[in-house]
Amino acid sequence: FRLRGIDLQVERGEYFALIGPTGSGKTVFLEVLAGLRGVESGRIFLDGREVTYIPPEERRVGLVTQHQDLFPHMSVLENVMYGLKARGIGRREAERRARDVLELLGIGELSERRPGFLSGGERQRVALCRALAIRPDVLLLDEPLSSVDPPLRRSLREELKRTSRKLSLTVLHVTHDREEVFSLAERVGVMIGGKMVQCGRVEDVVRCPVVSELLRT
């Protein structure tokens, strides 16, 4: 799959939503930003530093997907520590950071449990903790709430808003959910066929009938 001519600048501390039909390249775009996919052309800058060819573990980028991708044989604490240890942070400091972020999201009491004994919402919080523990400059969210029930989705949405503001995070959030776009994002981009075809303030972009079709209620 090829991304074509994407020119996007997201400001520090901005919450940016990304929408588009299935197969439009949204996930590929996030994977490129995270360093999980290479690029044939173009350049990527994070906070003024070029990271186009820098490996994922050397980018301060956190990624959370709808699938959580937790290690079933590890405790919650060990899962959150994993990314820190992969970046060469010592065990004591990694554990301190992991416990801090678990407390921040209100799940410190789950630290010794394994993922199989958690609810869907708890697993998603753990995945978010793991991404936040590395103290990312940018947080990438790939439909992180799509697999949880609506009442829990509302709760997690509020948690995302609170946490992103408290930590002054720069966030790129892929979603199909209208409420997520309106309640979280300042700007929204529309991707179709690997291109960013529209980008602007939420209230302006969503007036377009095509965009309204892309956002489920």
Distance N to C terminus: 29 Å
CATH-defined superfamily of the largest domain? P-loop containing nucleotide triphosphate hydrolases
Mean pLDDT: 91
CATH topology of the largest domain: the name is Rossmann fold
Q: Low-confidence stretches at least 5 residues in length (pLDDT < 50)?
A: none
Order of H and E elements = EHEEEHHHEHEHEEHH
Identify the strand order in the major beta sheet: 4-5-6-1-7-8
**Beta-strand percent range:** 15-25%
Q: How many helices in DSSP terms?
A: 8
Q: Report the radius of gyration as a whole number of Å.
A: 17 Å
Helix percent reads: 25-40%
Number of domains: 2
Overview of the structural elements:
The protein is α/β, with parallel strands linked by helices. It folds into 2 domains: 1-60 and 136-216, P-loop containing nucleotide triphosphate hydrolases (Rossmann fold, 3-Layer(aba) Sandwich), CATH 3.40.50.300; 68-134, no CATH class. Helices cover 38% and strands 17% of the residues. The chain has a 6-stranded mixed β-sheet with strand order 4-5-6-1-7-8, with helices on both faces. Helix 2 (76-86) packs across helix 3 (91-104) and helix 2 (76-86) packs parallel to helix 4. It is globular and about 50 Å long.
Short summary of the structure?
The protein is of the alpha/beta class and 217 residues long.
